[in-house]
Amino acid sequence: MLRTLLVGFLLLFTPAVLAQQGGENCRWISTFDQELVLDSLTVFPESIRFDAANQPAYNFNLQANTIKVSKPTGLDSIRVCYRTLPYDLHTPKANKTLDIYDSTALFKDAVLYQQKLAIPKRVEVVKTEDIAKTGSISRGISFGNRQDVFVNSTLNLQMEGRLSDNMNLRAVITDRNVPFQPEGNTQQLQDFDNVFIELFNDDFSLRAGDVVLQNEPTNFLKYYKNVQGGQLKTSYDMPGGFKASTTVAGSVAKGRFGSVSVEPIEGVQGPYRVRGPNNERFIIILAGSEKVYIDGQLMQRGYDYDYVIDYNLAEITFTNKVLITQFTRIRIDYEFSDQNYSRSIFLLEHEQANEKLNFGVNYYSEKDNRNRPLAFDLSFDEKEILANAGDNLDQAFTSRVDSVAYDENLILYRQTNAQDAQNNVYQIYEYSTNPDSAFYNVQFSEVGSGNGNYVLKNTTANGRVYEWVPPEAGVPSGNYEPVSPLYAPNQKSMFTLNGGYKLSKFDKLDVEVAFSKNDVNLYSDLDSEDDKGMAYKVIYEGKARPIRGLEGYKLNTGLSYEYDDESFSFIDRIRYIEFDRDWSFNAGDYTEQFSENILNANVSLQKDRLNGLSYRLVGRKRGIAVDGFQHYINGTKELGRFRLLFDGFYMHNSQPDVTSEWNRSSVDISYNSKYFIPGYRYKVDRNAVTNNVTSEVESTAMNFEEHTFYLKNADTLRTTYGVDVQLRED
């Protein structure tokens, strides 16, 4: 690397060097198609020329200072002329070298002894000359006046190379004696505590250790999992001209998928605590698994970008590049460490295709082992509670009150009676430090505002103390209860079949069928009638069809129909982040499940990036929750130096009680000169949910009109500038 930088640095001053040296050297060459050293000094490549009518083809290697000339037609020799630098840059030079040292030798001064160290080389049991190995291992001892002596250990090893003529190796092994996750303050993350080994060639790949499982493109099956296990993938040929690939993987999951919304606070960048999908207060997010969306747009992690995240605390903080208001929509998809049960993952994927046909089968399953809880042991009574709960896990609670001997170092409670305003008597637990009555160790859980009879009390005690508050008119007025939720083992799986046929050069037909299973409580057979679901999708697609009379334009068309029954469930979220919002639909408003019918039709004319037009129609029927359609239209057009961009969206959704309409449009006109771009942009976004009886607007997701005048730099300028004036009415 140093020599390459030196050569590049000196070549910057080549004209001055050649001017000082002057003259050129010439010699005859009669050896062709072989490497030949032109001069003992480094030859300047741009100065090479041949005294011949037909210039021969040649290749000059600057690193070795050699030239390879193809034999010219009709000539047995040729005269070549060149200039040289006053340096010899192609020969390695060093003041001192480590060649005489062996990695296992003692440190001795070879210059003092004037001879090479006479220490025999190591003999490796398994020779690995073709494998590059690098890394480090460290041991340390830590102690202090308030802690015991303990040993720190770290290992960092990377290997890459060739095991044989047809087998390659890649391995990363890092280990720390203390579990550690990287900080989420940079765009790229360095993995710690990972073990990853891969054997591979052009047709085969075997991975083991900490691997990432990610789905092949399908319409229904989507997953991204950090796991510990093995994955085998192989590619091969089949009769009929089919190219096939098969993937098999089995592993233990590190976590499971979650998707939550975070309530913003006006002007507060964070930190915001990310809760679990079941409102768990404290979770650990797996490093690098998160996707953060602001108003439907995917954000980038890093101090220089949009947000930073503390994975161990599950806290996210936005940078000053993101404006947070009370109307900001924050949505986070992530994987979190679930320590309730040991969870296994198994997948099988097979794809094969030839020029006309393609076929695929996929199976994915993740299942908790109900016989291997990790953080707790369930008693027989608690298993019976889960068995009777069915899918209604909100009612699966158990008492966490233990009778213990008094201990001044614990937060203990006494059992007593209390009355509300109506003189109703309740048996409650009250914090106490009295050795004669403080005999109960009580664990409280947050159950939501208005669902509990206890609140968190501010005290000087070394711990969290809870206090009973009387109900108001029989309605609880607290948010904690002396119970703990029981977590049930669950299973999610999906099996898909897909096939496609190429109708013509431009047209293709695809069909996919999927079967899902979602059992939220493996301890119970109750409510199992909705565990299994089915879905299918039929897709016609026409691509890049030429159009007569429209030179350079290509026609793209598409038509698809999708049906999901009321029990069908996805592994991970597969729709785009604001899919339901664009229909003014909130799944939480309905307790009943509905089947889904989605029709998509689209057509587009595209010439290039600056000239095109597209239209898409979407119809959706989801029981009584959604019954409507969407229109999308967008395009770009370049007329000389003028550029027009437009984007339109209209939605109508009819429901039994309300009707929702949404109009979202923008137009941008600009003039692209050599030095600056002036332009005007108009945007309107109006959504209204109207009561069908009173015709009154009940709510709106967005309602504004905006005019923007701007001036910015052209793309060809080095200097970046921009100024705009915006008039907006909300």
What would you say this structure looks like, in words?
The chain is 4% helix and 49% strand. With 730 residues, the chain is mainly beta. Among the domains are: 81 residues, no CATH class; 82 residues, no CATH class; 89 residues, no CATH class; 220 residues, no CATH class. The strands form 10 sheets. It has a 22-stranded antiparallel β-sheet that branches. The protein has a 4-stranded antiparallel β-sheet with strand order 14-20-16-17, with no helix packed on it. A 3-stranded antiparallel β-sheet has the order 1-6-3, with no helix packed on it. Strand 39 and strand 40 form a beta hairpin. About 3% of the residues have low confidence.
Which key terms come to mind for this protein?
730 residues; mainly beta; 22-stranded antiparallel β-sheet; four-stranded antiparallel β-sheet; 4 helices; 49% strand; globular
Shape field: globular
Spatial extent as radius of gyration: 35 Å
Strand content: over 45%
Structural class: mainly beta
pLDDT averaged residue by residue:
84
Return residue spans where pLDDT drops below 50 for at least 5 consecutive residues: 9-22, 104-108, 114-119
The helix fraction, in percent, is under 10%
Number of strands: 45
Q: How far do the termini sit from each other?
A: 59 Å
Largest sheet: 22 strands, antiparallel
Tally of individual helices: 4
How do you describe this structure in short?
This protein is mainly β and 730 residues long. It is built from four helices and 45 strands. A hairpin with a 2-residue loop joins strand 8 (147-164) and strand 9.
